[in-house]
Amino acid sequence: MSVTSVLDVKDLTINYDSLPAVDNITFDVKQGDCLGIVGPNGAGKTTLFRAILGLQPYSGNIKLFGFEDSRYDSIIPLIGYVPQKVTFEPNFPATVYDVVSMGLLSDKRIVQGVKLIQDCGCCWNRIYQSIKKKDDKITQALHTVGLESLRNRRIGELSGGELQRVFIAKALVKDPLLLILDEPVASVDVESQTKFYNVIKTINEQNNITIIWSSHDLDAISKYANRVACMNKKLFFHGAKEKFFSDKELLKTYTESSMQMHMHDHNHDMH
Asked: Which end of the chain is more exposed for a tag (fewer CB within 10 A), N or C?
């Protein structure tokens, strides 16, 4: 049996103080997808990611690689995650190499997750590599994100764009089958954004890693994603990016919603 579904979300609802942060959404992600999730601030994107990672209580159903319930925990180590904003104290005594090495899980936990998938007859197009030596894995991850030359640089000396790429490398050292990125280029300059997106494209196409990432940048979504999900607590669209960007009414609604949320945040900050 060939399994192509990486993530299945059905009737997912998450409430904060009886108010819905995520309201009854259903969608799936296939192997090899690069899904871009768009929505205004407060749309529930980060909350959704936390639920997928097992960090947020919810009602509904989430399956990773076809698994749920108690077996779900064994699959979590096969997910890489880069949070929305990462900061370090300027004098934090760790190098790029040190931080990336923190992403290495015990061989036992990784193998347990892989074995669970294989025992159920799942056949992945991507060959899951055997555990490499620690240094080889870190070097390869740094090469993928273009930071080999900075491996001995102190983490506090990096730019925002370089720091985000370090955390992608940290996620890559465990050979994830799924990579989740929460607005990864927020507060990063345009040049660094381009480098970042090229890394994402390489990871998705050459490393055959399924990617889910959230962004406000519709131009980047149109260039680098193959599928789009548009949400604002509820899910308004999920499908091919070509269909999303050809729907002028949907784009207008999304843009107006984002502008209204931006003005709300701005006015709130003024008080």
From this structure: C
> Is 267 exposed, middle or buried (CB count within 10 Å of its CB: 0-12, 13-18, 19+)?
exposed
pLDDT at 17: 87
Tokens describing residue 8: 């299945």
Say which residue, 87 or 68, is predicted with more confidence: 68
pTM: 0.81
Q: Does domain 5-270 have CATH number 3.40.50.300?
A: yes
CA 128 to chain centre: 20
Q: What is the pLDDT of residues 86-113, one digit of tens each?
A: 776 777 788 999 889 888 755 455 555 5
The domain locations on the chain are 5-270
Give the ranges where 38-106 is alpha helix by DSSP (H).
45-52, 72-75, 96-101
